[in-house]
What does this fold into?
Amino acid sequence: MTPRVALAAAVLLLGSSPSPAALRYIAFGDSITVGVGDSTGVGYPKRLEKILEAALDDNVQVFKSAISGEETSEALSRINSALGGGGDGLLLMEGTNDVTRISEGGLSIETVLRNLDNLALTAQSRGVEPIHATVIPRPQNAFRDSDNIITEALIREIRELAYVRKRKLVDVFEALDPQSLEDVFKTYYVGAADRVGHPNQEGYQLIAETFADVLLEVDTTPPVVGTFFPGPLPVEVPPDFEFRVPIYEPTSASGIDQKRSSLLINGREVGETEGNRRKLDLVFQDPDTVGCRVVLGVRSQDRAELPNVMERVLGVYALTGRKVLPGDVDFDCRVDGFDLITFARGFGAELGEPRYQRRLDLNIDGVIDGDDLALLAKNFSRSSR
Ligand SMILES: [Ca+2]
Ligand SMILES: [Ca+2]
Ligand SMILES: [Ca+2]
It folds into this structure.
């Protein structure tokens, strides 16, 4: 080594010698925290560290403590050693391997929640702030829970857990929710070769940004939905059923905009709200105005300076003893001019086009045309109640 090169090496060493970090986080989790699927091999913790250092202009350490395939019960056995170095926060993203176990009938969501709470309580008892995270959605080719029924049931309860315990929540499910983001699995996931559902580099970057937003208190998440009734599966309910949808605002100090939050029954804003700015229960119960079938939706936004807005359909439910006439496309038990207006919006559309709606294709032949209009006309001005 020439003296010049030796000097350069010494400078490099000095430059990279770790001065004490102003902030230290422990990224605790499974393969998603390990970074499996990230072709650069670093995963979200290193990416998060970079974002935080740039934003705070200070040294930050995001220490990775993760084991691929780990379930929350296994995590409990190593949480103490993971907390050994101390820190400002425990970033707790666990549970997706438990979902696989639940789908095989070997575990309950309640147990997973208790484990997550115990992990968080252990951190608290050692002076480290626990920060919950939901788990990411699974792609259609996942070998278990590819419809995300169990995953969503779990993440809705994690939202409640964070609310009840007054802990921060990083909602990575919401950040990657295929209902709010187009082509999620194509853009942010490894793809067909991976049947577990790991993110790719872009996915890990998005996860890192989602963590950073919460830690830096930048609100980029709209209110999110909790465990709602009657639930995500299509069921028949009595007309006097009480529809109940809790929504949470996990990150914003300013909270939910209650005036702009509502249940949607067949597209109409209805119901009452009860709660506070962090959790709001949206409730509707009225057999007289509920109609003959219910498309349950929710619309909400937070009070961030640039409000984060959310609107989505949660489920479609038949009502006991009520029948939908062909042509009653808004499900209010009558076929009238309002149905005609709705019908006209889809007229001419074929299956696969954005304007095509299944409920307007009355004879289900893949095109909304004169034949469907004839069916509507046949029932015009008739009522089913
Ligand atoms: Ca928000
Ligand atoms: Ca109607
Ligand atoms: Ca048709």
In short: Residues 219, 221-222, 249, 251-252, 302, 304, 308 surround calcium ion (ligand 1) (CB under 6 Å). The CA atoms of residues 6 and 194 lie 45 Å apart.
